[in-house]
Amino acid sequence: MEKIFENLEKSEKTIQTADHLLHVTYPLVKDKRLLLKILVEIKKGIASCINAVLQYEYLYGRVRLSTNPKLNFKKFLEKCCPRYNIPETNVKKIIKLFDIVEKHKSSPMEFVKEDKIVILSENMSSEIITLEKVKEFIDSSKIILQKSKKIILR
User: Fold this and answer.
1) Per residue in 82-119, pLDDT tens?
2) CA–CA distance, 130 with 36 (Å, rounded to integer)
C-alpha cells in the first residue's frame, strides 16, 4: 500500500511542477522548447498515477499485471478508466500525450515555427505542439489524478 501512496505523491508533485512550469516559468522565459519539457513532465506524472491505480487494483484482485507496460496501460484504459469515471476525452488526450512524447524521443528533428513546435518523425510526418495543446494535457492530467486519488484515498 505504501508504494501506491508513493506513486500518487510522485504523480501529484510532477504534475504540480509541470503546471508551475507552464503557468509561471514559461510566460517569463517564453522559450517554446520548454513546452516539450512540460509535456515530458506531464507524461511522467500520468505514468506514476497509472502505476498507483494499477497497483491498487492489483492489490484488490481486480486486474492482473504483466511485465509488459503496454499491456498494463491497455488494462488501465479498459478496466480502470470506467471504474474511476475518467471521461473518454481525457483518455484520448492521455493516449495522444504518450504518442507525442514517444515521437519527441525518437524524432530526428524538431524546430520552432512562430508560436508552435514542430516535431518531425522519420517518415517526415509532423506533430505540432501549441501552448493551448499543452494546457489541455495538463488539465486532463489533473482530472485523472483527482479521480484516482478520490477512489484510492477513500
Assistant:
1) 999 999 999 999 999 999 999 999 999 999 998 899 99
2) 10
Please report the domains of the chain, with CATH numbers, ordered by start residue.
Answer: 2-101+131-152 (1.20.120.330)
SS3 category, 128? strand
Dihedral angle sign, alpha carbons of residues 129, 130, 132, 138: positive
Q: Residue 152: what pLDDT?
A: 93
pLDDT band at 14 (very low <50, low <70, confident <90, very high): very high
- Residue-level pLDDT at 124: 85
pLDDT at 114: 87
Rg from Cα positions in the chain: 16
Burial 87-118 (b: 16+ CB within 10 A, else e): eeebbebbeebeebbebbeebeebeeeeeebe
Write out the E strands in 23-152.
109-113, 116-120, 126-129
Whether 23 contacts 103, CB under 8 Å? no
